[in-house]
Amino acid sequence: MAHHAHPQPLASPAYSTWDDLLTAAVSKALADNHAPADLSRWHYGEFRPIDIEHPIYSQSPILERVLGLPTSPGPQPQSGDDVTVKQVGHSFGPSERFTADLSELDHSTLNVVLGESSNPLSAWFMDQWPAWYHGTTFPLPFSHAAVDAATTHTLTLTPK
Q1: Residue 114's closest CA among 76, 83, 84?
Q2: How far apart are CA 139 and CA 104, in angstroms?
């Protein structure tokens, strides 16, 4: 009959088995984080929301009221935090998503967090937020031909 080694004794005599120790650790973590009694209602994303505020307009409720527009997406549930691969937190996250396709640069992609404009009155303010939040992105044309094909309007600045 083979002799099996016994596991090391627990650090605390309060628990007779490893299962008891692990159960107590999970129970303590749930209590410390104020988990609801019904765990099916406890969603990780709501526990770790992201809240990106406009650096100027968020400081002035009066400006927000005058504009009559949202100046940020407000708190949103997220699927990561500061200890996951998807590094997002209450007030931080990737500033853009960029993928360079070195075999065909015209297949590269890019998007920024909110949008190209920081002006809440612009059509390009928060236009990229849904894509950033849901993990999608946009084509980033590179060659002159691809840029010309994708161009919908131009703005020419001429010095006086």
Answers
A1: 76
A2: 12
| Stated pTM of the model | 0.64
| Spatial separation of the C-alpha atoms in residues 133 and 110, rounded to whole Å | 13
Query: What are the structure tokens assigned to 147, written together?
Result: 């840029």
Question: What are the structure tokens assigned to 149, written together?
Answer: 């094909």
Interval 57-105: pLDDT, tens: 777 777 777 777 677 787 888 877 777 777 777 767 788 889 999 999 9
- Residue pointed to by tokens 């015209």: 106
